[in-house]
Amino acid sequence: MTNPEELLAAAHSSCFSMALSLALAQAGNPAESIQTTAAVTFEAGKGVLGSHLLVSARVPGISEAEFEAFAADAKDNCPISKALGIPITIEAELA
């Protein structure tokens, strides 16, 4: 069975991946692969308290610092991140 928190995490990770992929491609650095997971924190009686994104990508031609900047921007600007209104953290690394 799947619970609502798992569905939210799936929506967040896929939305983030699409936003990151688009930003990288528009900058002339298309990703060869992007793998993202999201872990949503839920507390009974309080609801969803946060989301943590973990992303690893293969992007030829950019530095780790450049990739982290693209990832931070995608975290802040993907539509699901904007809709959630909760703290979102991220760990991003080049594969």
From TrEMBL:
SUPFAM superfamilies referenced in this protein's UniProt entry, alphabetically: OsmC-like (SSF82784)
Organism from which the protein derives: Agromyces humatus
Pfam name, any one: OsmC
The protein's name: OsmC family peroxiredoxin
InterPro entries, A to Z: KH_dom-like_a/b (IPR015946), OsmC/Ohr_fam (IPR003718), OsmC/Ohrsf (IPR036102), OsmC_Ohr_Peroxiredoxin (IPR052707), Peroxiredoxin_OsmC (IPR019904)
